[in-house]
Amino acid sequence: MCVGLSSKVVRISDGTAVVDAGGAKRSVSSELLENLEPGDYVMVHAGIAIAKITDEDDSETDQLMEELL
Questions:
Q1: What is the 3-state secondary structure (H, E, C) of the chain?
Q2: Which of 18, 27, 52, 53 has the fewest C-beta atoms under 10 angstroms from its C-beta?
Q3: Chain-centre distance of CA 33, in angstroms?
């Protein structure tokens, strides 16, 4: 099973984005996504931002993860 993590983009530079996932910041590849801006939400899998999502999607994902854990 694969799990993606929703994260908020903090900054972008040269195909790499720094994202915040629940307070943990990490660098991920952002090369698959166009027009990514700080403040956008993305789904991250295996160190790669694979899709843009809405902040509503992020909130729903966080709620579901809390219920599972």
A1: CCCCEEEEEEEEECCEEEEEECCEEEEEECCCCCCCCCCCEEEEECCEEEEEECHHHHHHHHHHHHHHC
A2: 27
A3: 11
What are φ and ψ of residue 34, in 5° steps? -95, 155
Report whether pLDDT(1) > 60: no
Rounded Cα gap, residues 2 and 29, in angstroms: 18
| Cβ contacts of 28 within 8 Å, gap of 6 or more | 7, 16, 17, 19, 42, 44, 47, 48, 49
Average pLDDT over residues 15-26: 94
pTM of the model: 0.79
- Token reading at 62: 């966080």
